[in-house]
Amino acid sequence: MIHYPSSKLPDVGTSIFAVMSALANEHQAINLSQGFPDFNCPDELIALVTRYMQEGFNQYAPMPGMPALRHKISEKTEKVYGYRPDPDQEVTVTSGATEALFAAIAAVVKPGDEVMLLEPCYDSYAPAIRLAGGIPIYVPLAIPDFHIDWDLLKRNISRSTRMIIINTPHNPTGAVMPRSDLQKLASLTDGTDILIMSDEVYEHMVFDGQEHVSALQVEGLRQRAFVISSFGKTYHTTGWKIGYVVAPPALTTELRKMHQFITFCSVTPLQLAIADYMDNEAHYRSLPDFYQAKRDLFCELVKPSRFELIPSAGTYFQLLKYDAISQEHDLDFAKRLTQEIGVASVPVSAFYHNKTDHNYLRFCFAKSEETLRQAAERLVTL
């Protein structure tokens, strides 16, 4: 008999996104659970990919990413954030933001290191920390607006703290960190060796005239941060899995040591197509208005329901609080909505390590107007 090794992640099962999407498919429900658009990417981008494939750009890309794309990332970063990273020493193209997150954590977190997570948080952070031998330290954000409790954060910092992970705009809550919070974080880490990982994949989805402030714009953070973004979010191409990391040269060197043994490189014709399409500055500049219109429509349509909501400040997710409708655990309620009214969402307890339940469900509004109207018609019947 073969004695298989014990699991390295014994308490980890299939992600909640896959679970709820499968349930949506089973019941032919409207899927507002997993964060992907139900509309296509720009036609010009598809034409560019096709052209590069037909021209023979189908072999390995350089490990750090195609030079053309890294240079365009550098130029765009300067346009948007006023900082121009060195494309050769500070920019790395990855196979999606998830690989970037994993590579950054694997690069610097050693056994016994503590990494601070602000909950609720994206579900890939903690497993990557644990696989590196690190210890996740969970610090809850304060509800209902999910802001940082700075006193609690300070109390959890120790001599073993290696990294603090931030995410703005924030998945799942839609909260946006103000500049003052990033400046506080810079002051808090000043004089320490604590690193920052700043997950900024929803950087172009900030609403109501607010601005997304990047860690790259705060000198005290930029020199200690891995800043991660995603073309999948920006160009409606989540299935392409192309992301990138901007980090100081010393951190980039360590990141690439991991990246080369995880995926080595990302898809060549996709990189070249994106590099060309990045000249279309109007696309990413228009995203705040584009997604705010969808947020506003969804919120207006759901307003007659018994759900309680605060309009999302960023991302393409909206939280709905349901305690006026049911006292069920959010996972049970989410499953029942999928099965009975045909609308799939994600329970926010899935973003807490201990499944803390505040009676919130997360809905993705990166959908067509028709999809949002159909979903809202069903939600207001509750």
TrEMBL record:
Cited Pfam families: Aminotran_1_2
Molecular function terms from GO: methionine-oxo-acid transaminase activity
Domain (Aminotransferase class I/classII large) ranges: 29-379
CC cofactor: pyridoxal 5'-phosphate
InterPro entries in the record: Aminotransferase_I/II_large (IPR004839), Kynurenine-oxoglutarate_AT (IPR051326), PyrdxlP-dep_Trfase (IPR015424), PyrdxlP-dep_Trfase_major (IPR015421), PyrdxlP-dep_Trfase_small (IPR015422)
Enzyme Commission number(s): 2.6.1.88
Protein keywords: Aminotransferase, Pyridoxal phosphate, Transferase
CDD domains to which the protein is assigned, alphabetical: AAT_like
Main EC class the enzyme belongs to: transferase
Full protein name: Methionine aminotransferase
Organism: Pontibacter aquaedesilientis
